[in-house]
Write a structure and sequence with these properties.
The protein is of the alpha+beta class and 179 residues long. It has ten helices and five strands; from the N terminus they run H-H-H-E-E-E-H-E-E-H-H-H-H-H-H. The protein has a five-stranded mixed β-sheet with strand order 1-2-3-4-5. The longest helix has 19 residues. It is elongated. The mean pLDDT is 93.
């Protein structure tokens, strides 16, 4: 007996009532099915210790070859990182490991998130990653580029928001943008 038949029998629901419930719960069912598909895909890619975490930056944490990965699952046909706000990009840069985006449609495809960010968001990511990892030489190099300077000017509010999490040296390097 399948789950729907069990529910119908236990609660005496009609086909119409079950159909109504399924239509209302469609998004939830798709979400759980995608979660199951994602776990199986990650297992097929030899990831271990796969944990569902549902955090703002990622849905899963997993390990492979001794490294930690943070995986965001995307099931829509839209650009996978378009909805990543600059704040989310900064939070991703804080993670101690590689952030991956798992595209589920049309078939599962695993991509390094940094590789698919738009240029402005990639620059922001690199600046925050360098700052959080205390790679001051790289941070200095990034902000020395004229093109990057123009990009950074658009993200001053984001940098100020994360100011308490940045080291004094990183703040000193970023000071020209903080006013």
């Amino acid at each position: 007996m399948n789950v729907l038949d069990e529910i119908k029998e236990e609660y005496g629901f009609s086909d119409e009532e079950i159909e109504f419930a399924l239509n209302r719960a469609k998004g939830i069912l798709v979400g759980f099915a995608m979660e199951y598909r994602a776990i199986n895909f990650l297992k097929s890619m030899n990831f271990d210790n796969i944990r569902y975490v549902d955090l703002p930056t990622h849905d899963f944490e997993a390990e492979k070859d001794g490294k930690t990965y943070f995986i965001e699952v995307k099931a829509s046909k839209k650009s996978p990182t378009k909805e990543y706000s600059p704040y989310k990009v900064a939070m991703i840069a804080m993670l101690k490991g590689t952030h991956l985006t798992l595209l589920m449609k049309p078939s599962p495809l695993l991509i390094i998130t940094e590789d698919i960010l738009s240029e402005p968001k990639r620059v922001l990511f690199e600046i925050f990653k360098s700052a959080f990892e205390e790679n001051y030489e790289m941070l200095q190099k990034l902000i020395s580029d004229d093109r990057n300077k123009e990009i950074i000017k658009n993200y001053v509010r984001v940098i100020k928001y994360f100011e308490p999490k940045l080291s004094d040296k990183a703040l000193f390097i970023l000071k020209p943008f903080l006013g």
